[in-house]
Amino acid sequence: MLENRVTQMLGIRYPVIQGGMQWIGKAELASAVSNAGGLGVLAALTQPTPAHLAREIERCRSMTDRPFGVNLTILPTASAPPYEEYVDAIIDAGVKIVETAGSSPKAFIERFKRHKVTIVHKCTSVRHAVSAERAGVDIISIDGFECAGHPGEDDVPGLILIPLATRALTIPVVASGGIGDGRGMAAALALGAEGINMGTRFVCTQEAPIHDDLKRALVAATENDTNLIFRTLGNTARVFRNSVSDEVIALERQPGGCKFEDIRHLVIGSRGRDAWISGDCDGGVLTAGMVMGLIDDVPTCAELIERIVLECSTRLRESLSLLDTCGGRNE
């Protein structure tokens, strides 16, 4: 059921991938997604050092015997993490699937390939996806403007971006951004994608390692409860609307704009990390997508994935039935 190139390449039952979310992509969540038939993903940079990542990989492996991946987000910063050492930790631990995001993973592709690691690369534009395919990645995860985190600067929604990407690429495409149920999965498959990637929807599951108060806040939120910060800095990020992100936007909109140093104290990662743990909705910047408007419960990962796959199958069958009724299907 739903077997395609993505399930075959990743060794999973369903083409459903959990986004490698900072502070949230830990063993509890990743193992639960993998055990449910999808692909769970650890967030490498959630771990303070490569040694900590190696231990988290082993902890995840003790909780599932199914495939899981590791996300490595590569960003140009003044004090960059030791990416080479994180790559070493992934390879040395025997992980066979990596999700890369941010900047091009070109510098690490040859090493991953040498160790038979399948590379899923997240992109927000077709031009970057085409470049990544040329560089040798195996699967593209294409992020529409609806997504949580960094949607790029082109503001192209998934309904346009997914078919553009599938038309331009020969490798499989996974749809990301704005997907939280089986209807979204059916739409993604109809648009040519061979799987889905979900972040915010998996935050609202029982196994997600965050405070229940924040899960309830995301369930209560609507599609209008996100903010786009860093727009004036050319590094747009979609986050949960709270007092912190409101203040960031106010500073960006002031005459003359602002510099990153003016908002650093508001957006520093440790504030967001602590807020996810404490349940303080106004404790820091919290990444979340517009899909919040489609979320109304906090199921287990197994319940969620089974529900999505069943609804997707039902929707696709209904579409075929409609085609038969209209006489548009050749026998």
Word description of this protein:
The protein is of the alpha/beta class. The chain has 14 helices and ten strands. The protein has helices spanning 5-10, 27-35, 50-61, 83-92, 106-114, 126-135, 158-168, 182-190, 200-203, 212-220, 243-253, 260-267, 269-278, 301-325, and strands at residues 16-18, 40-43, 68-74, 97-102, 118-123, 139-143, 173-176, 196-198, 226-229, 237-240. An eight-stranded parallel beta sheet has the order 1-8-7-6-5-4-3-2. A two-stranded antiparallel sheet has the order 9-10. The chain starts with a helix and ends in a 6-residue tail after the last helix.
Descriptive labels:
alpha/beta; 2 domains; 331 residues; 8-stranded parallel sheet; 10 strands; globular; TIM Barrel; two-stranded antiparallel ribbon
Element layout with pairings:
Elements lengths: L4 H6 L5 E3 L8 H9 L4 E4 L6 H12 L6 E7 L8 H10 L4 E6 L3 H9 L3 E6 L2 H10 L3 E5 L14 H11 L4 E4 L5 H9 L5 E3 L1 H4 L8 H9 L5 E4 L7 E4 L2 H11 L6 H8 L1 H10 L22 H25 L6
Parallel strand pairs: 1-8, 2-3, 3-4, 4-5, 5-6, 6-7, 7-8
Antiparallel strand pairs: 9-10
Mean pLDDT score: 96
The chain-level structural class is: alpha/beta
Distance between the termini: 23 Å
CATH class of the largest domain: Alpha Beta
The strand count comes to 10
Low-confidence stretches: none
